[in-house]
Design a protein that fits this description.
Length: 406
């Protein structure tokens, strides 16, 4: 069967995903029919909205392997969840300690939150990663002190897809009595995240990375005894146990719940299809061009199934993107692309500034077809060849390579 190719081809699913039409249908009902305030206790509109929110809470809990729906708090996205988890825990535990352990390739929503806490006196250890972007549980163990109150480690990286040893670190933290926060924005819907198996205390969730709407997310807070205490970021009407007050975004929450239910049902099938498309993309690039390098883990099991990050020697990533209007891709992380700095993630895994600037992030998604991938390979290979043909640097590199082969 030949599939039609849309143009531009959207290959930026690590930045955001389109909303699944089934999710839109659920949300539309909440906008137009069940538009009550979930806190209104005096009429059916409010009861229906509350019921819909509680269903979404169960759907999200089920996706992350949590037994109890009440462990899920709704927020505006993973950025807010990271802020609430990290600032909330550190401030609540100020009398017990003042030290946090994290690693250098976390998303800015974690790193900048920790920078803000450092200004309040918190001490932070930033662990280095290896050439594939991974930390070892042993590094975390070594960094813990009797003042450590929190470890924050992402499930999978948004630029290079590296999956961290979350379960190992979770067990270590539990043994040592330290809270463990995990940013799972990229992992949910791609990997089998399970908060109980992985001993995760706080898990950040984003709807728009898994075919849900933008501007909504959740924070899982493990049911521990004594309960995990968090200082709220906002104060107000007492919603979400006072931890996230404000009128609930019912359509968004319902959208997140529906997206979670679809992700749970599709799970392994979706991930296997994504990995197949990603591998097809890489082998097409690798066989069409020389002097390319895949960034991140080599082993398929060590990386997100939907993510590919490639450096093209002697090419400037921004120019490459500009010369391919047929493709929607990212250079480095879309979240930081407002800055002209080379990606801190690529630099942390040992790339030079030059090579980091020559990199693209390609993210496949649910609607991506094999024809899309084949068309993208053709466009990419042609664009790289065209730019290299104009590059004096490339002339020298290719002559050197030819001499080495001779
Ligand atoms: C790993 C990671 N954490 C957090 C975020 C921020 O999520 P949100 O857009 O829901 O605030 C992102 C989005 O790019 C991400 O990739």
């Amino acid at each position: 069967m030949t599939e039609s190719v849309r143009s531009p081809i959207y290959l930026d699913h690590n930045a955001t995903t389109p909303v699944d039409p089934r999710v839109v249908d659920e949300m539309t009902r909440m906008f137009l029919v069940c538009y009550g305030n979930a806190s209104s206790r005096t009429h059916a509109f409010g009861w229906q909205a509350e019921e819909a929110v509680e269903l979404a809470r169960r759907q999200v809990a089920e996706l992350v392997g949590a037994d109890k729906a009440k462990t899920i708090l709704f927020t505006s996205g993973a950025t807010e969840s990271n802020n609430l988890a990290i600032k909330g825990a550190v401030r609540a535990l100020a009398r017990r300690g003042d030290h946090v352990v994290t690693q250098v390739t976390e998303h800015k929503a974690v790193l900048d939150t920790l920078k803000a806490l450092e200004r309040e006196g918190t001490k932070v250890t930033y662990l280095a990663v290896d050439r594939e972007g991974r930390v070892e549980a042993g590094q975390v163990a070594t960094a813990l002190t009797d003042r450590t109150v929190l470890v924050s480690l992402m499930y999978a990286n948004n630029e290079i897809g590296t999956v961290q040893p979350v379960a190992e670190v979770g067990r270590l933290c539990r043994d040592r009595g330290v809270l463990f926060h995990c940013d799972a924005a990229q992992a949910l819907g791609q990997l089998d995240v399970h908060v109980e198996r992985d001993a995760i205390d706080l898990l950040s969730i984003s709807a728009h990375k898994m075919y849900g709407p933008k501007g909504v997310g959740a924070l899982y807070v493990a049911p521990r005894r004594p309960p995990i205490r968090l200082e709220p970021l906002f104060h107000g009407g007492g919603q979400e146990k006072g931890l996230r007050p404000g009128t609930l975004n019912v359509p968004g929450i319902v959208g997140l719940g529906a997206a979670a239910a679809i992700a749970r049902a599709d799970g392994a099938t979706h991930a296997a299809r994504m990995a197949g498309l990603r591998d097809r993309l890489w082998s097409g690039i690798e066989s069409g061009l020389t002097h390319v390098r895949r960034n991140g883990p080599a082993a398929a099991s060590g990386r997100l199934p939907n993510n590919l990050n490639v450096s093209f020697e002697c090419i400037e990533g921004e120019s490459l993107m500009m010369s391919m209007p047929e493709l929607a891709v990212a250079s480095g992380s879309a979240c930081t692309s407002a800055t002209k700095e080379a990606s801190y993630v690529l630099k942390a895994i040992g790339l030079s500034d030059e090579l980091a600037h020559s990199s693209l992030r390609l993210g496949v998604g649910r609607a991506t077809t094999e024809s899309d991938v084949d068309a993208a390979i053709e466009v990419l290979v042609r664009a790289v060849e065209r730019l290299r043909a104009m590059s004096p640097l490339w002339g020298a590199v290719s002559r050197r390579a030819a001499r080495a082969r001779a």
